[in-house]
Design goal:
five-stranded parallel beta sheet, about 15% strand
Length: about 210
């Protein structure tokens, strides 16, 4: 897939169990120029986790300073628990290299990112049906019936936000979903608003 001068920010949401991680991993495996955003967190590293690879590990004081400096595209603070945020600098650096950055985040976070970064491309990964979503949750073998019921109810609420997204990808099979994600990247890459430099050269006019 040809690179553009500046990469895209792809904001991906979807209910638990829909397969967001699987689809995103498969897309990145096929396209080295697609990177996953690295979040900052105040929680301590777990065994094997590397700073700057899995997370940017921050103290409470460092996290607070980043908030004051408007260094996050979005962040989440839960009293008495760990904080998480998406560093603006990492996303910008990767995009300037021509890489496309995936930010896998919930609906609330997606709204914040879109407000902070209007040119972000939002994609909602949906299940073929709620029944299939339930089957996938059961298939995990890690969910109680109560948890499945809660996640299904949450999924219904999240699906109501679909009209806010630029694209919807139905994860019926991973290969089909990845092909649709590739189509989205291609379509966005070809938009005239992302090719103003070339348009200027072709028309001989002033930059748009």
């Amino acid at each position: 897939m040809a690179r553009v001068k500046r990469g895209l920010l792809l904001v991906v949401s979807g209910p638990a169990g829909v397969g967001k991680g699987t689809v995103n991993a498969a897309l990145m495996e096929r396209h080295p120029e697609v990177k996953m955003s690295v979040s900052a967190t105040t929680r301590p590293p777990r065994p094997g986790e590397i700073d700057g690879v899995h997370y940017f590990f921050k103290t409470k004081e460092e996290f607070d300073r980043m908030i004051e400096e408007d260094a996050f595209l979005e962040y989440m603070r839960v009293f008495g628990m760990n904080d998480y945020g998406t560093p603006r600098a990492f996303v910008e650096q990767e995009r300037e290299k021509g890489n496309h950055v995936i930010l896998e985040i919930d609906v609330q976070g997606a709204r914040k990112v879109k407000a902070a970064c209007p040119d972000a491309v939002t994609v909602f990964i949906a299940p073929p049906s709620l029944d299939i979503l339930k089957e996938r949750l059961v298939g995990r073998g890690t969910e109680t019936q109560e948890s499945i019921d809660v996640r299904t109810k949450t999924a219904l609420e999240e699906l109501k936000a679909l009209p806010e997204y630029d694209y919807m990808v139905v994860n019926d099979t991973v290969d089909e979903a990845v092909a649709e994600m590739e189509a989205i990247l291609s379509a966005e890459r070809l938009k005239t608003e992302r090719n103003t430099d070339l348009i200027t050269k072709l028309t001989g006019g002033e930059p748009i």
